[in-house]
Amino acid sequence: MFSWKSWLINGIHICFIGMGSKRQLIRSFVEFALKDGTCLTIDGYKVQGTNCDGLWQYVERELFNRKESKSVADSKQTVLSSIAELDMPFYLVIYGIDLLVVHNTLKFLRPLLKISNVRVIGTMDHLRSGVVVPSLEQLLSNLRLVEVDTNVDYRSELLSLWEKHPPCYILREDQHKSASEMHAVISALNVNHRKLFSLIAEMQLAACSNGERFDGIEKYSLLRERRAITICNSESKLDALLTEFITHNLIQQSRGPGGKLYLMIPFPP
């Protein structure tokens, strides 16, 4: 953490990539090392696709803890002038910064990113890093990538997605579940269940990022996935793990091309 902090002091932005959710890592870093400045956290899973006007008003509300925003021009001017006048660092923490790049949302914050005391700490899905990094470097000239494999499941990211776009089964009267109930189900499962769910979530997020139609992950392709070797190495073990997810409606199973079984976590891409 000390090297990360020294990079920020020297004007270098940081983006964490690697396997697993990095939210808890970032929270610990913020609490431990970033007390010398002001922090603003943006959840890319919630604001992806937001237009320019909506993003500036969102930043103003979050920064000043306001329920209502001013006009867009006033919001932008208020945010920029307030941050520029700070005599301390301004840390902009962005979960899922790759989503803001893919959806052309981050570019709206270009004036903010150019302020001298602004430092960005972002997280990125490693499966998209090769595509996203060149575009990100155009917005952040001094960028350092830090690869960390936390192997923590992606429940926080999924809950953020579900908050804005609820899974289709939440809308059904006979199977209504709240986000907290889904979280409780995932938390109650064993380690291999959570690892498998995290892997499926990561594969689905990667597949959905290109904007093409997504019909699901071919069930038994998971047995050929090297990341699943330590989780399940046979059809019987895979079926046993998936039973809990399907029973609790956390994963949908359907027939696809060629009669093959496909799996999908039911939230819209």
TrEMBL record:
Gene Ontology cellular component annotations, sorted alphabetically: nuclear origin of replication recognition complex
Coiled-coil stretches: none
A Pfam family recorded for this sequence: WHD_ORC2
Keywords, sorted A to Z: DNA replication, Nucleus
Subcellular location: Nucleus
Any GO BP annotation: DNA replication
Residue ranges annotated for the Origin recognition complex subunit 2 winged-helix domain, each copy included: 211-268
Residue span(s) of domain Origin recognition complex subunit 2 RecA-like: 4-136
InterPro entries reported for this sequence: ORC2, RecA-like_ORC2, WHD_ORC2
GO molecular function: DNA replication origin binding
Family indicated by similarity: Belongs to the ORC2 family.
Subunit structure: Component of the origin recognition complex (ORC).
Record's function text: Component of the origin recognition complex (ORC) that binds origins of replication. DNA-binding is ATP-dependent. ORC is required to assemble the pre-replication complex necessary to initiate DNA replication.
Record's protein name: Origin recognition complex subunit 2
Species this protein is from: Babesia bovis
